[in-house]
Design goal:
784 residues, 6-stranded antiparallel beta sheet, RNaseH_sf, RNaseH-like_sf, Transposase
Length: 784
């Protein structure tokens, strides 16, 4: 600081003040940290940024006019959170520090009492402490001295004087091991009857002694447990006390919550980065496999970045029949994997769909997508292909199954469970269900049950209902035609925030930035979407659910090699080999040879008896009927005949007058698992049939007399029939092909002369005597 009185007036320096420095007049236009920006008044020089200490320490520095405390840096205030009154508090602390440091308050030319030139820094701190105490603020002189040192070290920035946010230590000074034990005991009591906190404290104490007594000793373990009042306080702060007061069902759901971060907003910038999936009742009745009404469920996969419906799956749903013992049916793991396969491939435009549902007629970048992926054609639906990277799923049994986890790991898809009974963890599928009910389901005139039982129409089960396959196609058409092309208020272009975009338009904006890479899966890769079954191959085949499967003729040699190899040499499997099958189409399975990474195609042994579509559920139903009649589930011939007779009876009987008859069963979605058959005539050139001529026949015996040479054939389209015969009649147009043998008879169909090479071949085949000494063999040859 300047030692002169004029230098001490630097404490009144502020933005807008006029100063003299280096024999020129300047105006303070900016103050950022320790840098002061000066603007010359004569306009002959550009603004200059100088250090505050260098400026006020100069010998010729003088404040000509101005006052008030220097303004605090707004960017520095943003780091601490801009709150109401934060700037005023920073300006007040800046004025106090300036007065303590210089003895002169900003904007004043006279020293206050206790801040004169003869006072020391400690005396000025004590005077400022007394002044603040009179104003009701308690701050000792030592604290002010510490604040001044921090203020000077930060370049006289007043932000460092503001009290920062204090992070509250969770659990206070209670040992973390005790807090962990408290959570374990409460989670252990989730499914039991409610208890008091005293019982929890006793169980925590027992758990600590059993876990740390040998390591720390009894005295040290006793010190881990806080006092009774502190224990009650920690239970209250951690929310464990409130959890104990909830019903048993709520406590069980809370205890099953996975220890992962939930809630909050994730920054999603590219398609497929985060997706959400969920399953819900569809409230639409459909026609089941037996022709009776059945309930349905809907499973969907929604992309968070652009709200696109990546895939949807409609499946039948029925409860378990307690009287007959018939098993229930709902969404299974195979349905989820088929949904994933649906998301990785374009949707085809089915016959009867609206032309506007095609991708070429939508806002998707169809030209760029077709250039990058050959699967995009004119018959592709207006729904983008999005490969999910992360799936937030519900904790239902299909989502946590081993098969779904295996498929996600194979496709390198991360998974994150949502909390139970917390729809806010996956809000997009929940909103999609409401949208589908409002804009699609209520327009399905046959089968819509309404939002509740009170609003359900009469005679819903007596209507001619749609099949599940028809509902699937109708829902896919609605998604491509309406949902993907309807503007969504939650989708905005960052460069055009005032424009509301549709899911397809938002995808077009994002894919232009992130790019698109096609990931087509081969039929061999698609087989890993199917269910896995461990089988033991034998000479007669292998069995799946008491059905015998045998290899097809093309793969019989490969299957024989597997039999000769014996064990699969897989850890824990010994003689078992991996097999993949689709329960919706169980007539064909694939045996996986992991040693050569190839597949052996196998068919059901009695496939020729079942001409109509059938599923594994139908087989199980007839097997239970056969067992109830006194048979065995292993009698596959009787079960197959029963299943075939059912289809024959269904085709022969007349349908009911008011209810539609049974239809082919629901067989899921079509998954390309068969290798495309190759045409053996694909590489051949087209043949002109008009140039085809009959080939001369070979002699029936090498001893037959040689025939006369055949005359040249008639030219095509020739009108000349040759000279007339002696009888006055014109000869037959084909008479030239049959030469006269001189006996006066009419033309006969004699064999044409064969090439010499052909005769030689025939002679060699017929005269090749395997045993020259065997006369009987020679006679047999000639007799033949």
């Amino acid at each position: 600081m300047a030692g002169s009185g004029e230098g001490r007036l630097a404490g009144s320096l502020s933005i807008g003040a006029r100063v003299r420095w280096q024999e020129r007049e300047w105006e303070v236009v900016a103050w950022q940290g320790s840098q002061v920006t000066l603007l010359p008044q004569d306009g002959e020089q550009a603004p200059r940024a100088v250090s505050y200490r260098w400026l006020v320490g100069a010998e010729d520095f003088t404040v000509l006019s101005g006052g008030g405390a220097p303004a605090a840096d707004s960017t520095a205030l943003d780091r601490w959170g801009r709150q109401e009154g934060r700037k005023e508090e920073a300006a007040l602390w800046q004025a106090r520090m300036v007065e303590i440091d210089t003895g002169l308050a900003p904007g004043r030319s006279e020293h206050a009492r206790g801040f004169g030139p003869e006072t020391t820094l400690a005396q000025r701190c004590a005077a400022m402490s007394a002044r603040m105490a009179a104003d009701g603020v308690r701050c000792s002189a030592h604290t002010l001295a510490d604040k001044r040192r921090k203020w000077k070290a930060a370049g006289e920035n007043p932000v460092v004087l503001l009290p920062g946010p204090r992070d509250k230590r969770p659990g206070g000074f209670t040992d973390p091991r005790c807090l962990t034990a408290m959570q374990e005991v409460v989670a252990r009591r989730a499914h039991a009857s409610d208890v008091t906190i005293d019982v929890i404290r006793e169980e925590v104490e027992d758990l600590l002694h059993s876990r740390y007594a040998e390591e720390l000793g009894s005295a040290a373990v006793a010190a881990l447990l806080p006092s009774r009042s502190t224990f009650y306080l920690r239970m209250k702060e951690s929310g464990l006390a409130d959890a104990l007061g909830q019903p048993t069902r709520a406590r069980a759901a809370l205890a099953s919550t996975p220890p992962l971060p939930h809630g909050g907003r994730e920054v999603v910038l590219r398609p497929g980065q985060v997706t959400q999936t969920d399953t819900t009742p569809l409230r639409i009745l459909a026609r089941g496999d037996d022709g009776r009404p059945t309930a349905t469920e809907l499973t969907t996969l929604i992309d968070v970045a652009n709200h696109s419906a990546c895939a949807l799956m409609i499946t039948p749903s029925r409860p378990r029949d307690a009287e007959s013992g018939r098993a229930g049916q709902a969404t299974r793991a195979i349905d989820l994997t088929l949904m994933l396969a649906q998301a990785l491939a374009p949707w085809p435009v089915m016959p009867g769909w609206d032309p506007l549902s095609a991708a070429a007629a939508s806002s998707l970048p169809f030209g760029a997508l077709r250039a990058a992926d050959e699967r995009f054609t004119e018959a592709t639906a207006a729904r983008p292909v999005i490969r999910p990277e992360l799936i937030i799923y519900d904790q239902g049994s299909p989502y946590v199954s081993e098969h779904f986890t295996e498929v996600c790991d194979r496709l390198r898809i991360a998974r994150r469970p949502a909390r139970k009974k917390t729809p806010t963890d996956k809000p997009l599928p929940e909103h999609f269900f409401v949208t589908l009910a409002h804009r699609f389901s209520q327009h399905v005139t046959h089968g819509w049950q309404g939002r509740s039982h009170k609003k359900r129409g009469r005679g819903i089960d007596r209507m001619p209902l749609y099949t599940i396959a028809e509902l699937q196609q109708m829902a896919q058409e609605w998604v491509a035609l309406e949902y993907q092309q309807t503007p969504d208020a939650g989708l905005r272009d960052p460069f055009r925030p005032g424009v509301v975009l549709s899911p397809n338009e938002m995808y077009a904006v994002q894919v232009a930035r992130s790019g698109y890479r096609a990931v087509p899966l081969s039929p061999a890769q698609n087989r890993f979407f199917l269910l896995r079954q461990w089988v033991i191959p034998g000479k007669g085949g292998f069995m799946i659910d008491y059905r015998t499967y045998q290899p097809i003729a093309q793969d019989a040699g490969h299957y024989r090699e597997i039999l000769l190899r014996g064990d699969s040499k897989l850890p824990g499997r010994e003689k078992q080999w991996e097999c993949r099958f689709n329960p919706y189409r169980p007539e064909r399975v694939w045996l996986y040879d992991h040693t050569a990474d190839t597949w052996v195609t196998c068919d059901f042994r009695l496939r020729h008896l079942l001409h109509d579509p059938w599923t594994a559920d139908m087989w199980q139903e007839h097997a239970e009927r056969h067992q109830a009649a006194g048979g065995s589930k292993q009698d596959e011939e009787a079960i197959a005949l029963s299943l075939a007779q059912r289809d024959r009876r269904r085709r022969s009987r007349r349908p009911p007058p008011k209810r539609t008859g049974a239809e082919p069963p629901f067989q899921g979605l079509e998954l390309e698992t068969e290798q495309p058959s190759q045409d053996p005539y694909a590489d051949l050139e087209e043949f002109d049939l008009s140039t085809l001529r009959p080939y001369p026949a070979l002699p029936i015996s090498p001893m037959a007399p040689p025939s006369a040479p055949a005359p040249p054939a008639l030219p095509v389209g020739s009108d000349d029939v040759g000279p007339t015969s002696d009888s006055g009649r014109a000869p037959h147009p084909l008479a030239a092909l049959f030469p006269d043998d001189g006996d006066g008879s009419g033309p006969q169909a004699l064999t044409a002369e064969a090439p010499a090479s052909a005769d030689e071949v025939v002679d060699a085949e017929l005269l090749d005597d395997p045993d020259p000494d065997d006369d009987e063999a020679e006679n047999d040859i000639w007799d033949a």
